[in-house]
Design a protein that fits this description.
InterPro entries: AA_ABC_transptr_permease_3TM (IPR010065), ArtM/GltK/GlnP/TcyL/YhdX-like (IPR043429), MetI-like (IPR000515), MetI-like_sf (IPR035906). Residues 15-203 form the ABC transmembrane type-1 domain. This is Amino acid ABC transporter permease. It is a multi-pass membrane protein. With 214 residues, this protein is mostly helical. The protein is 79% helix and 0% strand. Helix 4 crosses helix 5 and helix 8 (170-176) runs antiparallel to helix 9 (181-210). The mean pLDDT is 86.
């Protein structure tokens, strides 16, 4: 317990850093994922191509490489931001590709007759998607979206290698201070467990309330 009690403020700072990264990156991933999923099923060919390219590139790019591209590449174009914002961009964009595919799979579970009926009533593509298709698709994608955001929380550990305050990065300071590396990682693991179990509990509540009965 000495490792935790003697360095509670350090662990707390890292824990809050990971929570912030997870929350902000999740919001960005959900927003971009929704947009790209809409593009993937849009009747406009150029939008479908854009959505496909986005998903294909990001899903097949290692996250560490994406971090390097964002943190080292964007400043060359004059975009200089705090490292935490760069980390949010990298994590959010990367995860959005997976959110997009989860949403698209949910959209595909909605019978095509639903969309045809909406169009026959004079509804536009946007109205059909937002008022008819997505509300039904949402119910079936709650568990996989939750799993994707749990993966995002764990992927946030990479940000520590890029001078971003987060939970895993606390081990370097504690190792330099001579604390047991085993117990250092035990308490780091407990912190990640708290975060992931919280996300899991939240989505379990959402699934019980809105999920598809099986």
């Amino acid at each position: 317990m000495d490792v935790l009690t003697d360095n509670f403020s350090l662990y707390g700072e890292g824990f809050l850093g990971t929570v912030e990264l997870t929350v902000y990156s999740s919001a960005l991933a959900l927003a971009l994922g929704f947009v790209m999923a809409s593009f993937r099923v849009a009747p406009v060919g150029s939008l479908r191509v854009l959505g496909t390219v986005w998903v294909t590139v990001l899903r097949n790019t290692p996250l560490t490489l994406l971090f390097f591209a964002v943190l080292l590449g964007l400043p060359r174009f004059g975009l200089v931001l705090p490292f935490q914002l760069f980390a949010v961009l990298a994590l959010g964009c990367y995860t959005s590709a997976f959110i997009c595919e989860v949403l698209r799979s949910g959209i595909n579970t909605v019978p095509t007759g639903q969309g045809e009926a909406a169009r026959s009533l004079g509804m536009t593509f946007g109205q059909t998607l937002s008022q008819v298709v997505l509300p039904q698709a949402f119910r079936s994608v709650i568990p996989p979206v939750g799993s994707t955001l749990i993966a995002l929380a764990k992927n946030s550990a990479i940000a520590g290698a890029f001078s971003v305050t987060e939970l895993l990065g606390t081990y370097r300071t504690l190792n330099e201070l001579g604390y047991s590396i085993i117990w250092t990682f035990v308490w780091i693991a407990v912190g990640y467990l708290i975060i992931t179990l919280t996300i899991s509990a939240l989505f379990n509540v959402m699934e019980k309330r809105w999920g598809v009965a099986r």
